[in-house]
């Protein structure tokens, strides 16, 4: 049996994995593991739903996650233990979490210095905030309040988490930067089919979508307005989140175009054949590849979610695609176990898998929707937003995909108190 073709081979000695450029690659460099990219929905399905005795997540990740999150946390514990966390993710808890998240967001914008224009209670005053700094703090503060209790909340705690992610960029990041810069200058024709080429090709810049911001606000006016009085709204309840399609589509589409986890890896524990339907779907030959034990396989939610062969205008951020009865997005939605906001996706052969699939699929999907929805809901209710420099490009050098600078957001308060 032939070995699978090498997708990308930048440095002959260390193999192709190093180009990933995160600290995680220390692992690949150390063992000179080879990575087989299994792209598209079929590739994702092959890697993510494959047998756990053959594909192992802990072995692929622990070299990255354990130094960051410490021993006995995340991939340094047996997978079964993670199910304990699900106890905090019940519907009853979610009902309570909505109010807590709203409170935290309000507290933040009422006290953080970047929202001083909001605090001035003057609707003609404009301010701006650094999106990653402010939204990371809001995310950590709201997650800590709901999942870890009010005792752990303070701003330095939020900063520690931001630093954890930023700290990922070290020597390997510099190497990745050099690879990317070299390709940008010299062109990347010979690498057309590798992952870095795919990532470099993505064009995410788009213009402001004030129409969507307005639609989000009008959705609130319609469902939560009190006697038609401007700026008067009733509070949000967990059940309301199921009936806010614009908010739902905005989050869904954002996770399609900007999935925080663009690639998912598994260490291969036993020689594994790649079915010809995946390795060579258009070939008449019967041959199949074997990925040898010790290699790594990689699936990519980003690749499937941005594939122009699957999605119409794949590069365009267009929330309304989730409302198109003929569209791929609607089909991905119909595959969900239960319909509605926060429902869990089956995500086996789906082209939309921001939360992964199979045994290691995210246990926090519903919480993430709840948290993102409530934060966005609370901010939109209080302020208008503009992106003065457009949607930032992606920075793939951090553990979780982040927006590059400039990434300031301009705001204006909607109503006087
Ligand atoms: C937008 C937010 C989120 C995204 C896009 C996301 C994405 C993902 C993805 C793609 C995986 C699969 C990794 C793999 O297969 O190797 C995953 C796993 C996981 N996620 Fe999330 N996640 C999010 C939020 C959360 C939250 C809020 C929690 C906790 C409350 C959480 C807890 C976990 C855990 C514990 C796993 C590991 C599951 C396992 O290995 O069995 N995630 N997440």
Give a written overview of the molecule.
The protein is of the alpha+beta class and 417 residues long. The chain has a single domain, classed as Cytochrome p450. The protein is 41% helix and 9% strand. It is built from 15 helices and 11 strands. It has helices at residues 25-31, 40-48, 57-69, 91-111, 116-119, 131-148, 155-166, 171-186, 195-201, 210-224, 245-257, 276-279, 301-305, 328-334, 365-382; strands at 35-37, 55-56, 126-130, 264-268, 272-274, 289-291, 296-299, 383-386, 394-395, 402-403, 408-413. The strands form 4 sheets. It has a 4-stranded mixed β-sheet. A 3-stranded antiparallel β-sheet has the order 3-11-8. The protein starts with 24 loop residues before the first helix and ends with a strand. The site of protoporphyrin IX containing FE has 17 residues, from helix 15. Belongs to the cytochrome P450 family.
What is shown here, in short?
Keywords: Heme, Iron, Metal-binding, Monooxygenase, Oxidoreductase. It contains 15 helices and 11 strands.
Strands side by side in the biggest sheet? 1-7-4-2
Largest beta-sheet characterization:
4 strands, mixed
- Provide the gyration radius in Å: 22 Å
Outline: globular
Q: How many distinct domains? A: 1
Query: Which residues form runs of ≥5 with pLDDT under 50?
Result: 7-18, 22-31, 166-173, 191-199, 202-206, 337-344
**What's the helical proportion of residues?**
40-55%
The fold-level CATH name is Cytochrome p450
- Strand residues, percent: 5-15%
- Kindly, what is the distance between the CA atoms of the first and last residues, rounded to a whole number of angstroms? 72 Å
Question: What class, by secondary structure content?
Answer: alpha+beta
Superfamily (CATH H level) name:
Cytochrome P450
The distinct bound ligands, ions and cofactors come out as: protoporphyrin IX containing FE
CATH class: Mainly Alpha
- Report the total helices: 15
Protein name: Cytochrome P450
Family: Belongs to the cytochrome P450 family.
Keywords: Heme, Iron, Metal-binding, Monooxygenase, Oxidoreductase
Organism: Gymnopus androsaceus JB14
């Amino acid at each position: 049996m032939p070995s699978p073709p090498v997708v990308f081979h930048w440095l002959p000695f260390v193999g192709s994995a190093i180009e990933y450029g995160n600290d995680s690659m220390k692992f690949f460099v150390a063992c000179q593991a080879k990575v087989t990219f299994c792209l598209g929905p079929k590739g994702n399905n092959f890697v993510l739903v494959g047998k756990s005795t053959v594909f192992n997540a802990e072995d692929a990740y622990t070299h990255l996650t354990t130094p960051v999150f410490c021993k006995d946390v995340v991939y340094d514990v047996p997978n079964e233990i993670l199910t304990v966390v699900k106890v905090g993710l019940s519907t009853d808890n979610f009902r309570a979490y909505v109010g807590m998240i709203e409170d935290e967001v309000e507290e933040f914008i009422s006290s953080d210095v970047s929202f001083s224009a909001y605090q001035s209670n003057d609707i003609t005053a404009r301010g701006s905030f650094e999106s990653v700094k402010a939204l990371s703090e809001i995310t950590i503060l709201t997650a800590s309040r709901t999942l870890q209790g009010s005792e752990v909340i303070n701003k330095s705690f939020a900063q520690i988490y931001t630093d954890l992610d930023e700290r990922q960029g070290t020597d390997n990041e510099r190497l990745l930067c050099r690879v990317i810069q070299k390709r940008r200058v010299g062109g990347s024709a010979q690498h057309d089919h590798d992952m870095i080429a795919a990532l470099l090709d993505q064009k995410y810049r788009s213009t402001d979508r004030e129409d969507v911001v307005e639609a989000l606000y009008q959705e609130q006016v319609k469902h939560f307005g009190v006697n038609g009085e401007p700026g008067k709204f009733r509070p949000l309840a967990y059940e309301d989140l199921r009936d806010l399609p614009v908010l739902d589509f905005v989050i869904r589409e954002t996770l399609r175009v900007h999935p925080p986890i663009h690639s998912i890896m598994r260490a291969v524990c036993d020689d594994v054949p790649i079915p010809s339907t995946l390795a060579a779907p258009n070939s008449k030959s019967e041959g199949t590849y074997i990925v040898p034990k010790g290699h790594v396989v990689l699936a990519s939610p980003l690749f499937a979610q941005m594939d122009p062969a699957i999605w119409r205008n794949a590069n365009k951020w267009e929330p309304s695609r989730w409302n198109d009865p003929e569209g791929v997005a609607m089909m991905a939605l119909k595959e969900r176990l239960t319909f509605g906001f926060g429902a869990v996706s089956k995500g086996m052969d789906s082209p939309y898998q921001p939360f992964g699939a199979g045994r290691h699929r995210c246990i926090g999907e519903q919480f993430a929707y709840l948290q993102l929805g409530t934060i966005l809901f609370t901010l939109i209710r209080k302020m208008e937003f503009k992106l003065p420099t457009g949607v930032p490009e992606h920075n793939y050098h951090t553990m979780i995909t982040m927006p590059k600078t400039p990434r300031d957001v301009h705001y204006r308060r909607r109503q006087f108190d």
